[in-house]
Write a structure and sequence with these properties.
Length: 515
């Protein structure tokens, strides 16, 4: 089928500038923030020379951690998935255990943070810069990241803080402080310092990646389908930011239980819509799928014409995978720590599925759609979410409207989850009081207005940078506390083999009433 694109897509390379050109307030905010964004990105992505190749040190940091966890835990990222699925479906749920959410709800909340615009706009960036071969390395990075996620989410439950009212708080800031103090008493000051550093990074990282990036791209997709530079929204980005802030606030001000009730319904819905649309595109171009896979595999190891060659393709794949599934970054363990369980390892096994669903399934679907759509049908020279939209529109000319809905859902769910992450970081730093809780949430919601006004060219690097900084203290903690996770792993599987872990008698809440 010949591509039939909406007129708005013909100017898709311009809308990121047009909204600011029509509004002095938008432009002043973007210009004032740019120097800070450039400074942060320059530090985090400072490069080191390895055998003649220039590699950002933060990516090397994440890759090595994934390799370490994969080997140290004896490929738990492969052999633990079946048990993880049994736990997700509620086979081992116990209402008497401590926590706030079911395993399914904890996974859904974490996925609401990771399944976002990185799966749409981020993959498009990787394929544009690194070629189709970047999709292969995204999958490799996700497989390694599964082991990292297993480790950090086990620790998040193991060392979480249980309050007097029965609710819990957890995440890297807690296992860095409590875990290191328990295992290495002499290193307790180091653990405390790492915990504070992580929490500070989390305060700003959640705003950069979970707020600025999400609301910015959601706005631009809506701008596209309403006329681009002629849209009623052009020059009124701040108004869209206010609307998103209000919608997000209606959920996050209700705490983790309201967040979980929303995400366990929203995440399956938005993933289903996106996957079905992707299958329609692939089904229509089924003849091109073998060629698309060939381009992905050949591009992963040859990458002719791609700046940076094969190494550049690898780095693009790993960078976008890390941004998408955030294994090693440390934010998702905050959601996983809320689970109702007294077995820390169970949530580590559940967490294995998070990078798999997010990157191996959803990101691969996006990369395949873009690659397949581009075979014989040159796509317009656009970037980010506009490229993904153009790829879907080659089969479904109306799809930019549907994608606008998907983008809004992805952005909305991510903003909800990241507000919770930032709130827990604020609670750790300043106290678990209602005043701190509400104050941070209101600050986070106010920042939505700033994020929507930023220029895309500076936004990607800034969002990646402030987000990746969280990995520094987190991964130091993973290395120090890996023996704790290994003891938990060996003990859990030994008891499982002896039949000491009983199945639950009742199905979990999300399956009750199912046939």
């Amino acid at each position: 089928m010949r591509p039939v694109l909406l007129p708005a897509l013909l100017v898709a390379s311009a809308p990121l500038r047009s909204h600011a050109a029509g509004g002095d307030i938008d432009q002043r905010i973007a210009d004032g923030f740019k120097p800070f964004a450039d400074t942060v990105a320059g530090f985090v992505f400072a490069a080191i020379d390895i055998g003649g190749f220039v590699v950002p040190w933060i990516l090397f940091w994440l890759i090595v951690a994934g390799l370490f966890c994969t080997l140290y835990f004896r490929f738990i990222n492969v052999r633990g998935m079946a048990q993880g699925l049994r736990i997700i479906r509620g086979d081992y749920d116990n209402a008497d255990h401590h926590g706030d959410t079911s395993h399914f709800q904890a996974l859904a909340t974490a996925l609401s943070g990771t399944v976002g615009l990185g799966n749409i706009a981020g993959v498009a960036v990787a394929v544009t810069v690194g070629g189709p071969g970047a999709a292969f390395w995204m999958t490799v990075a996700a497989l390694l990241g599964m082991a990292t996620k297993f480790c950090e989410c086990t620790l998040a439950v193991k060392f979480r803080h249980r309050r007097a009212d029965g609710t819990v708080s957890g995440g890297p800031m807690y296992y860095l402080t409590r875990g290191i103090a328990a295992e290495y008493p002499r290193l307790a000051p180091l653990g405390r310092a790492l915990g504070v550093l992580f929490a500070l990074c989390c305060l700003f990282g959640t705003i950069g990646s979970g707020n600025f990036f999400q609301v910015n791209q959601a706005y631009h997709q809506l701008l596209l389908i309403t006329g681009g530079e002629h849209s009623v929204l052009a020059g009124r980005a701040w108004l869209f930011g206010v609307a998103m802030a209000v919608a997000t606030g209606l959920v996050v001000l209700g705490g983790i239980r309201r967040i979980a009730r929303v995400t366990d319904k929203l995440v399956p819905l938005m993933v289903l819509i996106y996957m079905l649309a992707g299958l329609v595109v692939l089904g229509t171009n089924v003849h091109a799928i073998p060629e698309a896979f060939g381009l992905i595999l050949s591009g992963a190891f040859s990458a002719e014409g791609v700046q940076g060659g094969v190494l550049g393709v690898i780095l693009q794949g790993f960078r976008r995978a890390a941004f998408s599934n955030e294994a090693g970054i440390g934010s998702a363990p905050i959601a996983h720590a809320s689970v109702k369980t007294d077995e820390p390892l169970t949530e580590g096994l559940v967490a294995l599925w998070e990078p798999f669903i997010d990157t191996v399934i959803i990101c691969t679907m996006t990369a395949l759609v873009i690659t397949v759509a581009g075979i014989g049908n040159p796509l317009p020279a656009v970037e980010g979410v506009a490229l993904t939209s153009a790829a879907f529109a080659t089969v479904m000319p109306w799809f930019p409207y549907a994608l606008a809905l998907v983008v809004l859902l992805f952005a909305y769910s991510t903003m909800i989850a990241y507000c919770y992450y930032g709130t827990k970081a604020a609670n750790y730093l300043f106290g678990e009081t209602a005043a701190i809780d509400v104050s941070y949430k209101l600050f986070y919601l106010a920042m939505t207005v700033f994020g929507v006004t930023m220029d895309f060219s500076g936004l990607v690097d800034f969002a990646d940078a402030i987000y990746f900084l969280m990995a520094v203290p987190n991964i130091i903690g993973l290395y120090l506390l890996a023996p704790v996770v290994k003891r938990e792993m060996d003990g859990y599987f030994a008891r499982l083999a002896r039949g000491e872990l009983a199945h639950s008698r009742e199905p979990p809440e999300h399956l009750q009433g199912s046939p």
